[in-house]
Write a structure and sequence with these properties.
Number of strands: 5
Number of helices: 12
Structural class: alpha+beta
Helix content: 55-70%
Radius of gyration: 32 Å
Strand content: 5-15%
Largest sheet: 5 strands, mixed
Distance between the termini: 24 Å
Shape: elongated
Amino acid sequence: MTERPRHFPERKAEATAPLPPVRFAYDAHTWKEIAHLLVNLPVALLGFVYVTTVLFTGFWLTVTVIGFPLLAAGLMGARKLGAMERARARKLLGVRIDEPSPLPLKTSNSGFFQQLWMMLKDPVGWRTILYDFIRLPWGILTFTITLTSLFVLWPVLPFIARGLANADRAMVRGLLSPSDELERRIAELESDRGVVVDAAASDLRRIERDLHDGAQARLVNLAMGLGLAKEKLLEDPEYAAAMVSEAHGEVKLALQELRDLARGIHPAVLTDRGLDAALSSVASRCTVPVKVTADLNARPAAAIEGIAYFTVSELLQNVSKHSGARTASVDVWRAEDRLLIQVWDDGRGGARLDGGTGMQGLAERLGAVDGLFVIDSPPGGPTTVTAELPWRDRSFDTGRR
């Protein structure tokens, strides 16, 4: 199997910074730790007042229509407090931690109540609430010890500051850092579920519209024509024969429309012969010459094949309508447990996710099944669109092993 380069952004793993080395003098790091410990009290007081107000007000008002939205807004505010604390820890304690993933509210197509529920069960917000709730006694303790040591225990203050600052570092890492990749995936899947539901509803509306405006209307006219031909059969056989001939033509057109509609749902060639033959069929209908290369030693799950087919189909439609290309190519191959697709054309370039050519919808659909979608289309071309899907063996569809 030919290996091809992958051009996907790698997810950055959380880096836990090691503790600073032991120091025995009042250097810049020591003074930063002392400043952090002295600021703990006012910051902890602010956080404690905020979270107690949010919890008390939100929970008491849950019996009304504004309680849950108010509590959700409080959790979003807690996220902001957590971001401020992470910034303070980075500046004064040298703690290097990643920011948690934002809630996918702007990219989610779910309704108000689904987004409200997503905010209410946000683990980042609740861990920040817990952090701010327990910080007040700790802030009082660190402020008192540090301030007293400045005047009484000056020779050993660096060691005291070091110990207290290490406890702060552990607290920040434990409660304010991203928990793990599972938390990130939960937020993504919450958004992806809405995308899948909306895409399915849109497809059903399209099928209903095509049936109503196309084959259904044609079949209604056919039935009316055959009824009139039946009435004219005895009194005017020639006229009736002409109407039957016309009805025969309508039947052919209706059958063709139904075949086109079925191809748009799931083409028979994809089911019978697989992705290679189906993509060759799509390429043959493109107005630009397309070379198809498929390096597949097996077939992925039927759902993955369908997504790959319709992704390539829509990309080649864009090539025909918008690219101004002279040639194009489609490459499909398997890399370990992923299905890779690359569509290239030598057109004018300038394709973007927000360009109004359906690219954003394709990216959302692939993202809903843990896929990736990358566009490389500089002005002047060429354009290379790379898609990655999970492979999933065909036994995934039937439960066989």
